[in-house]
Backbone:
């Protein structure tokens, strides 16, 4: 059977790729034999206008819930943790934490709900197991339904360390009555990470999935935390 001939655009593109590879090799002082071997490999790598498969997404790794998930959800449990009822929290470094919730195919997980909870600036949770010592103005827990595009957003503080733990924010994703994921968000570059038992025992790819920078923005720190669940 005769092979289907390549379209002219593909042949032209490949020829240009060969020429560019020769020029680059000459500029770098590479032997002609090395450049020729690289050109032979081009057909396996260069697909021209043909669509290349998308990189596989990795599910956000799960982490322990910890002992301080609320016994009962607070009356004020919206996405603004810096305002609890009529009280405004002035401690810590204000930060926005946002991102998207998608499945392994990259599709927004419509109907999902994201919850976060964390300690206040002094390392205390709103929880009887921590003596209910958290600042009353700090909401400490928030939840929000994702939008049609899968997006979510919280107003909170950059997490702080407390005894035995590096800074982190607890995160839970629900869909209806199902809990799809419980994990923890860490601060990139924090010196406490390497000493934290949970963080340092994650594989490198898993660490990268749950560790994000808190960067300066127009209205405080900004942290982007994409969540991928195997729904």
Residues:
């Amino acid at each position: 059977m005769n092979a289907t001939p390549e379209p002219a655009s593909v042949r032209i593109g490949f020829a240009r790729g060969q020429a560019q590879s020769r020029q680059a090799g000459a500029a770098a002082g590479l032997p002609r034999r090395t450049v020729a071997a690289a050109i032979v490999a081009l057909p396996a790598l260069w697909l021209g206008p043909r669509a290349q498969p998308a990189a596989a997404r990795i599910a956000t790794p799960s982490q322990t819930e910890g002992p301080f998930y609320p016994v009962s959800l607070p009356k004020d449990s919206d996405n603004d943790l810096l305002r609890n009822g009529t009280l405004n929290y002035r401690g810590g470094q204000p930060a926005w934490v946002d991102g998207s919730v998608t499945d392994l195919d990259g599709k927004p997980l419509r109907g999902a709900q994201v919850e976060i909870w964390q300690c206040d600036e002094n390392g205390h949770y709103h929880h009887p197991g921590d003596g209910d010592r958290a600042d009353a103005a700090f909401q400490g827990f928030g939840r929000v339904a994702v939008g049609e595009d899968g997006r979510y957003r919280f107003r909170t503080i950059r997490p702080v360390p407390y005894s035995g733990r590096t800074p982190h924010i607890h995160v839970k994703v629900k869909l209806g009555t199902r809990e799809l994921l419980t994990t923890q968000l860490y601060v990139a570059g924090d010196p406490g990470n390497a000493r934290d038992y949970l963080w340092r025992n994650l594989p490198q790819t898993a660490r990268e999935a749950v560790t994000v920078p808190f960067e300066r923005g127009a209205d405080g720190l900004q942290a982007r935390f994409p969540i991928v669940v195997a729904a």
User: Anything to note?
Assistant: Confidence is low (pLDDT under 50) at residues 6-15, 24-28, 33-49. The CA atoms of residues 61 and 206 lie 6 Å apart. The helical segments are 8-27, 32-45, 197-200, 204-210. The radius of gyration is 25 Å.
